Amino acid sequence: MGKKFLIVCGGTGGHLSPGIAVAEELLSRGHQCALVISNKQVDSRLVQRYQHLDFVKVPGVAFGKSPAEIARFFLGFFRGLLAGSGIIRREKPDVVLAFGGFLSLGIVLFASLGGIPIALHEANRKAGRAVRLLKRFATRIYLPTGVRLSRVSVGTVRYYGYPVRKEFRRTPRRWAREKLGLPRDGFLLVVFGGSQGASALNGWVDSHCKEVLSEGMDIYCVRGLGKGAEGVLEEIDSRGQTRRYESVGFCDSMHLVLSAADLAISRAGAGSIAEMARCVIPSVLIPFPYASDNHQMENARYFEAQGGCIVLDQAYLENLFDEVVSIYRNPDFLDRMRENLIMIEDANRKEDLVADLEQVAADGPNQSWWRFWQKKPAPEGEAL
Ligand SMILES: CC(=O)N[C@H]1[C@@H](OP(=O)(O)OP(=O)(O)OC[C@H]2O[C@@H](n3ccc(=O)[nH]c3=O)[C@H](O)[C@@H]2O)O[C@H](CO)[C@@H](O)[C@@H]1O
Q1: From residue 91, how far is each of 3, 82, 113, 369 by CA, in Å?
Q2: Which of 116, 214, 339, 345 is the most buried (most CB within 10 A)?
């Protein structure tokens, strides 16, 4: 019989995308899902493509350091707790799966009080605040390969990687380019900065696009919502060929953009990394230097050690052009990176994660909490 899953995945594309990936897989296996997202513009924009899924918006504010931010966070937390209690009562899920972030806190606390099994997913190679806080309530914790979390029993942890949405797959480059209206031939450099865009990368493209075009590469840049002008620029390269630079805001078809690319320049969000591995796209990663606990640098260094990318610290952005040109001129190096990416991709096993979630649902409520919540006495000889 189908089960009901509540997936808490809003706040950023890096949480929402794997939530959508898991929801679609669960639906295809006959289960029901509701996805909790935030009021942020990026959430509303990303879900437009997935009207067949059931999204529920709840308020919430990310944690900050200034007194005003902390006050706003707690206000948002209590509003989120209230909204979360309503959602849990209405949806009556068999399992809550949370992808971390500020939205998870209230809902997970409330659900675990009701004995509902909790599964947490951490995408990054340094666990975020929400997962560290909530780990003690979890029946299951999904971590990236080799990442450890202190004071968590080994039996709770599974390593299934990052669930990638089903439209991301190895697609013929020319087909993807045709769909995007891009030239079918030639070397395409794709630049993007995760779900919110990256001003530093946009700035680099703005100041270097003519040099890159002149080298013989085309450019496709996904700037992020409200992060600069969209449009097309054409230039003649050093061999007399027309080269094209296209710039867009938010993109609903990142699977096509990645499939169309020869090389990507990106931040080091866990989702972007998993999607580049799935589409077999070599990259130069410039980790966001202010990410909490510098987790993007950890993500990027691990990926680089596996041979999937080159890492460049943002402090050395002036070297990026030379780096890109030297990769462009070295097709053997690109081929080696592609071979590595095919092997790396094996770590992302969405189907195994979903099968495990089904098991968590089949095991039923957390007995001690459940009885406590329902005020039922424990069977004789069993302490609560
Ligand atoms: C600044 C910051 O802290 N960012 C974090 C955030 O990243 P962020 O939200 O940027 O997430 P990722 O890079 O992990 O993934 C971005 C997701 O948004 C999608 N997308 C992006 C742009 C676009 O125009 N259209 C679109 O659909 C991508 O296909 C991808 O699925 O969550 C990730 C997962 O916890 C973390 O690893 C990142 O460090």
Answers
A1: 11, 14, 15, 19
A2: 116
Give the model confidence (pLDDT) of 7-26 as tens digits: 999 889 999 999 999 999 99
278 CB-side CA count, 13 A: 24
- Rounded average pLDDT over 303-312: 98
Residue 25: which of 163, 120, 169, 141 has the closest Cα? 163
Give, rounded to a whole angstrom, the gap between the first and last alpha carbons of the chain: 30
Q: Is 195 annotated to bind ligand?
A: yes
Pocket test for ligand 1, best of 169, 191, 195 (most atoms within 8 A of CB): 195
165 is an annotated ligand-binding site residue? yes
Please tell me if the CB atom of residue 17 comes closer than 6 angstroms to any atom of ligand 1: yes
At 367 the pLDDT is 64
What mean pLDDT comes out for the span 293-320? 98
Instruction: Kindly give the pairing relationship between strand 157-158 and strand 140-142.
Output: parallel
Is the Cβ atom of 193 under 6 angstroms away from ligand 1? Answer: no
**Is the CB of 357 inside a 6 Å radius of any atom of ligand 1?**
no
Does this model's pTM top 0.90? My answer is yes
Residue 350: enclosing H or E segment and its boundaries? helix 350-363
Report ipTM for this prediction. 0.99
Q: Ramachandran region of residue 375, left (φ > 0), alpha (ψ -120 to 50) or beta?
A: left
State pLDDT tens for residues 294-303.
Answer: 999 999 999 9
Ligand 1 midpoint to CA 158 (Å): 22
Q: Whose CA is nearest to atom 1 of ligand 1?
A: 291
Report the half-sphere exposure of 81 (CA within 13 A, side-chain side).
Answer: 12
Identify the structural domains of the chain with CATH numbers, from first to last.
4-163+348-374 (3.40.50.2000), 173-346 (3.40.50.2000)
